[in-house]
Each structure stands twice: as C-alpha cells, then as structure tokens.
Amino acid sequence: MSHEKSFLVTGDVNASANPGYPGGSQPPMPPYPVAPHPPPPFQSGYGQPGYPQGPYPQGPYPQGPYPQGPYPQGHHPPGGYPPFPTNPYGQPQEFQDPNSPMRGNYHGEGPPSYYDNQDFPATDWDDQSIRRAFIRKVFLVLTLQLTVTLSSVAAFTFVEDVKVFVRTHVWTYYVSYAFFFVSLIILSCCGEFRRKHPWNLIALSVLTLSLSYMVGMIASFYDTDAVIMAVGITTIVCFTVVLFSLQTRYDFTSCMGVLLVSTVVLLVFAILCIFIRNRILEIVYASLGALLFTCFLAVDTQLLLGNKQLSLSPEEYVFAALNLYTDIINIFLYILAIIGRAKE
C-alpha cells in the first residue's frame, strides 16, 4: 500500500510493481482516454489505480518561422472605410456619400435665390402642398402690387387735378425714383434682408408705392385712350404668357444667358436713341424692350415651378413677386410707348 501511494504521488511510470499487473511492468498509457464510452466521473483521492496523476507528456511544437504569404491587394476606397453607425436598436444605417450629387454643393446659412436642380434635389417640392402654397403666396402679393399700381395709373389719368400737379412738380418723379432704386438694390442684393419678416414686406411696399407713382406720372403725359389700350394689351399678353409658361414643357430657364446678352444689347440701343431722336427708331426700341421683358416674364414664371433647370427657393416669395412685378410694369411702359409714338 505504501508502494502504491509512492507511485501515485511521484508519477513514476517505470515502477517495478503494480497491483494491477502482477509480475510485469505497466504498459504505456495514452495521455487522454480513447474509450468510446464517456469517462467515469473523477473522484478525488489516491485510491484510483490506473490513472496517473503526474504531468502528461508534451509533444514538441514547430519552432520555425511561419510562412508569410502575400496578402490580396484589392482596391480600397480613399480615406478608409466609413465607421459603422451606432444606434440604440443595433440596426445599420444607410451610408451617404458626401460627394454624391444628391447632397448638393451649397453650404450657406440660408436658402439661395437661384439654384440648379442638378445640384439641389427638389425634395421639398415633392410635397404638392408646399409648391401650391408658395405659388399662391407669390401671386397674392403680385395681385396686391398690381392693384396699387393700377389705382395710381387711374388716378393720374382720370383726375385732372392730379395730372396738373405732377406735370408742374416734376421733381417728385426723381424723389420716387431714388426710393425705388434704393429698395430695388436692397431686395435684389441682400438675401438675408429679403427673407426677414416683416422688413422684406416693408421694403417691397416702398418699392411698389414709388414705382406706382412713377408709372402713374408717366401715364399722365399720354392720352387716356392710349393708357387704356396699353393696360388692355398688357393684361392679355401677361395672362397668356403666364398660362403658357405654366403648361409648356419647354424650359425657358435654360435661356437665361441669352436674355442677359439681349439686355446688354437693348441698353446700348437705348443709349443710341438718346442721341438720335427718331420716331421709328423709338418704336423699334420699345418693341424690342416689350419682347425682351415678355421673355423675362416667362422665365420668372417657370422659376416658381421647381421642375425646371433653375428654380427659386420656397422662402423667396418676395423676390419672386418682385421679378414678376417689374416684368409686367416694363411690358406696360414699352407698350404704352409704342402706342404713344404711333399716334403722333
């Protein structure tokens, strides 16, 4: 018994005597049992013959260098892979490329006046209510402006005392022109100002009142029949152009560069008319001016739609109303000049 305990403690596999194998040496045993049945539960103690408790033999491991094969060199995106988005629900989010055209290139604080629909997707225009509300607001403001101007033209045309006053006080025309020019520059060049309520409406009101006074004063120097005829022709032309621009598939906004060049040519022609006083030349100049601003009216109308190459931001209702108003006023003045020179 003492010899068995000595074997179990030291783990000597070369013991000369073993109770399980009398008269011979113990055969070598594998480091782990290989029986097909599950091993018996382990019981602590020294009374378990046949299960050596010493260290198991350790086979040598390969100590040489591991083979280093080349890694696949595929195409990797510049800047590394994007980090995986984390959210409380563990659902991956859709990755958005910052260089994608759907994100646009505008990074300003406020919405731009004009923008290209190729860089600015019309996501806000997908909702029909936003488009209709914007167009309705623009035409409501435009209607109020034209009502004030038409009232001024009627007063300067049919009231004799007012006609006499403006003809004897010509300096009031230049004062109203100064107010008109300052308010026009502010609304055209200061994008932040024309989006601030109510300052944008105050500036637009000043511009409308000053321009209405100027138009009424100009109309007072023409015959009443010529003024009425010019108002009727302007109404028909503008109504037709607006309806056509809203219904047609042709994109007038793509012709903006041609119209700007035509404006420069018309300005040069106007300087020529100052030095050459000729009735036929003035009629040709007025005809070209009416045609040019009719095209501008078509372009400014399509800027409201949002489905053309160029569009206006939905917050630019004051700027949109200003463009349409000045187009209609210029068409009226050029048509009035054509009729007035033709009757002389």
Automatic annotation (TrEMBL):
Keywords: Membrane, Transmembrane, Transmembrane helix. It comes from the Eukaryota. Residues 25-42, 52-70 have a biased composition (Pro residues). The keyword Transmembrane helix applies. Residues 88-99 have a biased composition (Polar residues). It is found in: Membrane. The keyword Transmembrane applies. Residues 1-112 are annotated as: Disordered. InterPro entries: Bax_inhibitor_1-related. The chain crosses the membrane at residues 138-159, 171-189, 201-221, 227-246, 258-277, 283-305, 317-339. Its main location: membrane. One of its GO terms (cellular component) is endoplasmic reticulum. It is a multi-pass membrane protein. Pfam families: Bax1-I (PF01027). One of its GO terms (biological process) is negative regulation of apoptotic signaling pathway. Belongs to the BI1 family. This is Glutamate ionotropic receptor NMDA type subunit associated protein 1. It comes from Sarcophilus harrisii (Tasmanian devil). The gene is GRINA.
